[in-house]
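Protocol step 4 of 5: obtain the predicted structure for the target chain.
Materials: sequence only (see below). No template structures provided, no constraints applied. The aim of this step is simply to have a reference model before the mutagenesis design in step 5. Sequence pasted as it appears in the construct record:
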Amino acid sequence: MQHGRDYTPNRDQYNLRFNVFKQSVDEIDSINERPNQTWEAGLNEYSDMTWAEFKAHFKLDAPQNCSATNTVKIAPANDLPKSVDWRTKNVVTPGMFTIQSLTKS
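Step 4 output (structure tokens):
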């Protein structure tokens, strides 16, 4: 009971999980037999879960609201100003270490 699961009280659950685990082992073996494989697949605490259960457990089918999945509208280059002083937009802070601070004694 390496990952804290005990399916022995429920024979149907035991058989289901064992079959899912065997399928995971077969898939892992298939992956690791690929020529020129640069990584190795292995067993972990999720090896007795189906792919559907794994996705549900980690909410992988849930909509994501992050910068990696949202599209960003980029203004056409002709709509951009020629220059922007980012200091006036409170986007950057004043430098703490500058050439001027080296020359002041």
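Step 4 remarks: The CA atoms of residues 26 and 98 lie 61 Å apart. Residues 11-32 form the longest helix (22 residues).
Proceed to step 5.
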